[in-house]
Amino acid sequence: MSAHSLPEKAAAVWHSLEVDKSLELLKTNAETGLTPQEVQQRLQKYGPNELEETAGRSAWEILVDQFKNIMLLMLIAVAIISGVLDLLAWQQGSLKPGELPFKDTIAILAIVVLNGILGYVQESRAEKALAALKKLSSPNVRLIRDGKPVEVVAKDLVPGDVMLVEAGVQFAADGRLIEESNLQVRESALTGEAEAVNKRAKLILPEETSLGDRINLVFQGTEVVQGRAKILVTNTGMQTELGKIASMLQAVESEPTPLQQRMTQLGNVLVTGSLILVALVVAGGLLRGGNLQELLEVSLSMAVAVVPEGLPAVITVTLALGTQRMVRQNALIRKLPAVETLGSVTTICSDKTGTLTQNKMVVQLVYTNNNSFRVTGEGYAPVGEFQLDSNNVSVDQYPEIPGLLVACAVCNDSVLQQQKGQWTILGDPTEGALVTLAGKAGIEKDQWESKLPRVSEFPFSSERKRMSVICQVEEVKTGVSSLSAVDPAIAGMLKSERYLMFTKGSPELILARCTQIYLGTSSAPLTDQQRQRILAENDTMAGKGLRVLGFAYKPLNEIPPEGSDEASEQGLVWLGLVGMLDAPRPEVRAAVQECRDAGIRPVMITGDHQLTARAIATDLGIAQQDDRVLIGQELQRMSDAELEQQVDLVSIYARVAPEHKLRIVQALQRRGRFVAMTGDGVNDAPALKQADIGIAMGITGTDVSKEASDMVLLDDNFATIVSATKEGRVVFTNIRRFIKYILGSNIGEVITIAAAPIIGLGGVPLSPLQILWMNLVTDGLPALALAVEPPEPDVMKRPPFSPRESIFARGLGSYMIRIGIIFAIISIALMWWAYNHTHAAGYQGDPDTWKTMVFTTLCLAQMGHAIAIRSNTRLTIEMNPFSNPFVLGAVVITTILQLMLVYVPPLRDFFGTHLLSPTELGICFGFSALMFVWIEIEKLFLRLMGKKAV
Ligand code: ATP
Q1: Sign of dihedral through CA atoms 60, 61, 62, 63?
Q2: Mean pLDDT across 622-638
Q3: What does the mean pLDDT of the chain come to?
Q4: Ligand 1 atom 7, closest CA
Q5: Measured between alpha carbons, how far is 758 from 712 in angstroms, rounded to an integer?
Q6: d(CA 557, CA 854)
Q7: Is the pLDDT at 245 greater than 50, yes or no?
């Protein structure tokens, strides 16, 4: 049997095989895993551990979807009517000499097709971008390879790998359990069953067992809710159960943003409005005895003018650029709406450890048996001294210390490693610091793990705030005679028991479960006085901002049954306190200040002690020294209404459990706050989903929390949330800016066109082709440039905008209408002058030249508009023209293109323009400049009135 066919053949029956048999079939070893050569060979054989992309909509479907847009449908109708009119003119021979028939029809249809193609390209690019984002957020997997624990990207998993998992992990492949401890797995992704399933390694199941009952196997895409396990990878990639039903794959969602939805609504309004306007113009014109064909032409032009053809593309590009800028700053957007809604955040609820602090723990103080020892040394290097009153001491002089350090080493799941001379940890930094501490006194984790092999455990969870391991004492003590067989470090802990349980966690909690205290060679009852001293010492350490853990042990004769943690973790013997420093991230202080200036309230929510939390929050400026700290227990007792009264006042929540986070978010939301919430654990997922912006941690976050989030912080840093919020504001401001710019222009065009027949000028000033040119090129290019306008200096100095308010709120709608009307007045005045000028006796040029003057003025006026609109408050002369060189570039290029349409003969013929004399061109420039002047005067006026512009 070739190795290749092996797993496939066994695929259906892994659950009916013993662990050893499975290991043998996959030619691997549970202790050492595969060698690098074997991994390479298997990678070639089985391919990467990836699910093939599911087939989305077909190209044809995507293309058809593009035409479901009402504005495009209207353009198609315009193209058809315009074609019919041309056909009639052609048949009647009334086409002007040299004029191409069906030009407008072809141009409009070309735009429609182009739009379709653009939409198609955009959608497939968006898919690709999302796939890339998915890869970026693809999890790492902890494995044993070549006898060592390593982390690899999920893609590189192969059958035969030995995988280590713990709570929060999403399985990256299917596998057979080798060993497990309290393992509970949520398999809803596969079976739809929400209840977590208990998994057991030792079972062997009948072959016909159904998928949901194969409790000795785990499946890709399902999540560890609790416990730990060692797993033999049996199937990867498309061979997994999830691969077989890949359509269930949860993709990164690409839902339309609120803005995109509002734009669709706007399209409907514009189309309906323009149809009504067209009906009025045609009816009014006919009543006044107007020419139907001419009125139809006016209507067609108006219909084209009202549609902002360039707008959807500019919005999509802006959002896409926003996500790119955010990812460069380490904020990975998982759901596109987050880009624009981030700017609306009013409250940021952040974890402490790792987000506000560096999560690089160094133990500084150890407190045992009335002695407080300082510990020297930097980072994770196991080199340092124990000091008492500033003097180095040997730990052997204080026999209670080695006992505590053994607890540090074995009640621990992290691994200390030396890579290229650097000491690093694999696992939780809190635990890493403890391994380092033990190492400083020569207590090596590896050695002690073989002396005291772990036989059972009660794992850590944020709810329990503690963990215990049960170890077998290597040499079973049967009597006083064999005392020497037990290492002196723990000899005082045992009489004749076979097992030792070590417990560590939140000091108050552990101490409450202790009845005795360890004195180094024996234990004694714990007095109330001792309790008080320990608690006082705990408060002193926490008050210095240290993260403090308490340690205890319990000798046992039996291995406690699973799930008996409450009963078993009682009657403990107190060992001591360990205080570690987790320095605040240096950049966070400035970020907190920036939040305050921006009207955003930072809130710390931590599982840590209230005094530690307060010390760090005060240091960072999140709270004042005597601000109220709300503790998990108090919160537990509060009703939702009581909590709602407090949430706006409290900036520190300490000793909270993940379910409290959900209540805090909900209370804040009921107060009308727009909440961003960070989280990393499995149980944080509901709060992340509930928050307006759920933020997962890229480094320490579990897969489950990432799946529930809108955004992932690649560097786990609070400052990154603030930068992303700033980007969100910039994106939103720029979108508002070019919507004002584009729609103001559309309103101006429509009024100008409608005015021509009303004031009795013969003919339509602008042909559909010219309008398309304006909307796409002369509006589109500067709008794109405005989309990358750098942040205004006050972007983080003003309060957040509510996401629920209309995009037209705060004066944007009235600005558009006002500017549209000014725009129209300027062009109508010019139109009036130009018409009379070109119809005056003795005029040399074509009498239709007035139309080209209107066309040119409209385009040039928009250039002035683009320059002036860069700031709402600052005058153009107060701004650096090169701070957004794109606007300057777009204006220069567009002006040149516009002049080419008038002065390059083939273009002139195609666009139906007429040659302008230098005076005529000068007049156009003069009228256009009025637009710029008007906006600048408006800014000055608002400034004098002390009002803020939109
Ligand atoms: P944050 O919520 O800001 O990240 P945190 O890391 O303190 O803060 P949790 O990880 O939920 O929050 O930890 C809660 C408490 O549980 C800690 O304050 C500590 O007392 C205890 N604790 C943390 N890690 C461990 C561990 N590995 N073993 C035992 N107890 C722990």
Answers
A1: positive
A2: 91
A3: 85
A4: 608
A5: 57
A6: 97
A7: yes
pLDDT digits (tens, 9 = 90+) for 434-488: 999 999 999 999 999 988 999 999 988 888 999 999 999 865 444 443 444 678 8
Picking from 390-394, 417-421, 527-531, 904-908, which range would have the lowest pLDDT averaged per residue?
A: 417-421
Which atom number of ligand 1 is nearest to the Cα of residue 604?
Answer: 3
Which of 412, 437, 549 most suits a substitution to test ligand 1, by most atoms within 8 Å of the C-beta?
549
Cα–Cα distance measured from residue 256 to residue 170, given in angstroms and rounded to the nearest whole number: 27
Euclidean distance between CA atoms 369 and 523, whole angstroms: 11
Nearest residue to 115 via CA among 313, 321, 303:
313
pLDDT band for position 1 (cuts 50, 70, 90): very low
- Residue 122 has a pLDDT of 62
- Closest approach atom of ligand 1 to CA 464: 16
Percentages of the chain per state (helix, strand, coil), in multiples of 5: 50, 15, 35
Residue nearest to atom 14 of ligand 1 (CA): 607
In b/e form, how buried is each residue of 248-265, taking b as 16+ CB within 10 angstroms?
eeeebeeeebebbeebee
Nearest Cα residue to atom 6 of ligand 1: 353
Closest ligand 1 atom to the C-alpha of 354? 4
**Could you tell me which residues come within 8 angstroms of residue 658 by beta carbon, excluding any fewer than 6 positions away?**
462, 463, 679, 681, 683, 684, 687
The one catalytic residue in 104, 161, 351, 582 is 351
Mean pLDDT of 798-816: 80
Report the atom number in ligand 1 closest to the C-alpha of 549. 20
Q: Is 846 a catalytic residue?
A: no
Token pair 């290229």 in the structure block, residue: 420
Ligand 1 pocket (Cβ < 6 Å) reads 351-353, 428, 430-431, 460, 462, 465-467, 504-506, 549, 606-608
pLDDT in tens, 491-521: 889 888 889 999 999 999 999 999 999 998 8
Mutate to test the pocket of ligand 1, among 353, 355, 464, 651 (most ligand atoms within 8 A of CB): 353
Which of 606, 651, 688 for mutating ligand 1's site (highest number of atoms within 8 Å of CB)?
606
